[in-house]
Amino acid sequence: MITADSVPQLRRGVRLSFDHVRETHVLLFPEGVLVPNATAAAVLELCDGARSVTDITTALSQRYSGVLAQDVLTVLSRLGERRVVAWT
């Protein structure tokens, strides 16, 4: 079960990059490509295998107003279901 203390990281072979042609982030992985929305991209940028969900929520709260830990958990859970995020 994913909690506020869980530490997410991009799975091996998964890479978040910025597509300058489309002017959006893309998530590249062996099975395909995802185009995350701005919220998911902001969360993914902080998934370094060292920060917990709480740390990610705190970092996002410094950049944006109204960030909720449950929203971050929901985004990460969905990305986990797509097998692009792993938990340490």
TrEMBL record:
> Any keyword Plastid?
no
Domain of life assignment: Bacteria
* Pfam families assigned to the protein according to its UniProt record, in alphabetical order: PqqD
Q: Which UniProt keywords apply?
A: PQQ biosynthesis
Involved pathway(s): Cofactor biosynthesis; pyrroloquinoline quinone biosynthesis
Q: What Gene Ontology terms describe what this protein does at the molecular function level? A: quinone binding
GO annotation (BP), single: pyrroloquinoline quinone biosynthetic process
Subunit structure, briefly? Monomer. Interacts with PqqE.
Its recorded name reads Pyrroloquinoline quinone biosynthesis protein D
